[in-house]
Amino acid sequence: MSIPTATRFRSAMRLLPTSVVVAAGLSPTGEPVGMLLGSFTSVSLDPLLVGFLGDNNSTTLPALLALDYWTFSVLADDDDLTPDAFRLPQSERFDKVKWSITPYNTPAIDNAALTIHTRNHSTLPAGDHRLVLAEVLDTTIPDTARSPMIHVHGRMTRLAP
């Protein structure tokens, strides 16, 4: 048995469904900073922690890690606009999506299926990524009938009813 190449491993992992989440905070100048995540997960109940893996080559990750508070917006399955907007340069990502400032002074996507308000907790090296942990302060479920978007087979999709 051989160890898979990075390309083969990446192809295999495309079969694993993941959530589609925007991590966002406000820069010291009041500009929103955010990135699209495909590795967001619940980590711990005591203390309440969530986490994601951020690519070491990301230009947005350092700006996000410099902030104390973040909001994670779990995108709804009918949100066709936000994933494409977050593929744009950082300065344009929030221009075409509806978002608001939360009581935690962080940006959140308005039509998200779930919003998780957090404080920066810690980071750990993880190969060519960083494991980023955040302490959960609060959650907001705007509409329990909305379902989350998922990413699988290289595309955004929804769960079957």
UniProtKB/TrEMBL annotation:
Flavin reductase like domain: which residues? 13-158
UniProt keyword annotation of Signal present: yes
SUPFAM superfamilies tied to this protein: FMN-binding split barrel (SSF50475)
Question: Which family is annotated?
Answer: Belongs to the non-flavoprotein flavin reductase family.
> Which organism does this record belong to?
Saccharothrix mutabilis subsp. mutabilis
Q: Which domain of life is it from?
A: Bacteria
Family matches, as SMART domains: Flavin_Reduct
Q: What is the designated name of this protein?
A: Flavin reductase like domain-containing protein
N-terminal signal peptide: 1-23
Checking Gene3D superfamilies in the record gives: Electron Transport, Fmn-binding Protein, Chain A (2.30.110.10)
